[in-house]
Amino acid sequence: MTAIPQLPLNDGRSIPQLGIGVWQIDDATTPGVVSTAVELGVRLIDGAFIYGNEASMGEGLRQAPAPRADLFVTSKVWNADQGHDAARAAIDGSLKRIGLDYLDLVLIHWPCPAQDRYVDTWRALIEARDAGKVRSIGVSNFNPDHLDRLIDETGVTPAVNQVEINPRFQNAEIRAANVARGIVSQAWTPLGNGKSFDAPAIRDAASRTGKSPAQVILRWHIQLGHSVIPRSTKRDHLASNIDVLDFELTEAEMAAIAKLDAGDRCGPDPREFEVV
Fold first, then answer.
1. Mean pLDDT of 221-226
2. Which residues, at least 6 apart from 26, have a Cβ–Cβ distance to it below 8 Å?
3. Which residues are catalytic?
4. 3-class SS of residue 207
5. pLDDT tens-digit map of 29-58
6. Is the Cβ–Cβ distance between 166 and 200 less than 8 Å?
7. What is the pLDDT of residue 110?
8. Is residue 115 in some structural domain?
9. What is the residue range of 96's domain?
10. Which of 20, 108, 122, 128 has the greatest number of CB atoms lying within 10 Å of its CB?
11. Which residues of 223-251 are buried (b: 16+ CB within 10 A; e: fewer)?
12. How do strand 184-188 and strand 134-140 relate by DSSP bridges?
């Protein structure tokens, strides 16, 4: 298998461009998914406190046939843990549950602007990074105004902004804002729940390349420069999701997929999401 490319981060580190997410995978299944993905060549594992499976993700990492130093493990501070002290405790809790001495990346899961605690939360992430508990720090679902407030008030730019991106919700404004600030865009729900699988632009590219619609979409992400974290519990799907490095979409195919954008979110709007 071709080695998965690394994307440079603005803190001097790097992140694998392709990994897996463990959202909505139950405790019993998660260890096998994680260890199988690593066996197949995946090194980026994306988790979060709110997923409820950090401990089983950690078990999968211990079962995985790769040393810890070769893995890139992400977790996230949930909305109920916003604020300086609560966020510090949340990071310690994630480390304990997963069973790690450090995390490669910690994100603020949502800005929750009505709480108005994300700057204090960000300060806690900076402290955790400086203490060696976290290698890189970033955010998830942050809009440009949220990003600029973090940067203006702390002087520290997030390394990653994990946001919803898929063919029917391409989130061009946020992607451009990330690029302008030197932030890597990481795509969650990158396949858009399959809503564009039957679109002619996807089907035509799949027919030409001999790949599946899902592989075409993941390749689209790769060529746009995103880090991408598809989810699957099946070995053949895990293998298929990383078998996207041996072909390229043409400029015409990329342009055709760009026209699929319909503003059709799969998840909530970050300006409004305040669930704790």
1. 98
2. 53
3. 51
4. helix
5. 999 999 999 999 999 999 999 999 999 999
6. no
7. 98
8. yes
9. 6-194+225-233
10. 108
11. ebebbbbbbbbeeeebbbbbbbbeeebee
12. unpaired
Dihedral class, residue 225 (left if φ above 0, else alpha if ψ from -120 to 50, else beta): left
- Token pair 């729900």 in the structure block, residue: 189
Tokens encoding 200: 């002619």
Model confidence at 173, pLDDT cuts 50, 70, 90, reads very high
Q: How big is the CA angle at 177 (ends 241 and 22), to the nearest 5 degrees? A: 30
The count of structural domains within the chain is 1
Alpha-carbon distance of 124 to 210, in angstroms, equals 47
If we measure between CA atoms, which residue out of 26, 78, 72 comes closest to residue 48? 78
Binding annotation for substrate: 109
Q: Nearest 5°: CA angle at 19, between 14 and 20?
A: 140
Is 247 within the bounds of a domain? no
Beta bridge partners of 184: 160
- Residues 249-273: pLDDT tens digits? 999 999 999 999 999 999 999 999 9
How is residue 193 written in tokens? 């729940």
The closest alpha carbon to 195, from 141, 106, 265, belongs to 265
**1 pLDDT above the threshold of 60:** no
In a domain, 274, yes or no: no
In a domain, 166, yes or no: yes
In one-letter notation, the amino acid at residue 89 is A
Task: List the one residue out of 17, 53, 50, 14 whose CA is nearest residue 33.
Answer: 53
The pair of three-digit structure tokens given for residue 125, joined into one six-digit string:
């992430």
| Distant-in-sequence, close-in-space partners of 92: CB < 8 Å, separation ≥ 6 | 133
Kindly tell me if the per-residue pLDDT of 10 is higher than 80.
yes
CATH, residue 93:
3.20.20.100
Which phi and psi angles does 43 have, rounded to 5°? -125, -15
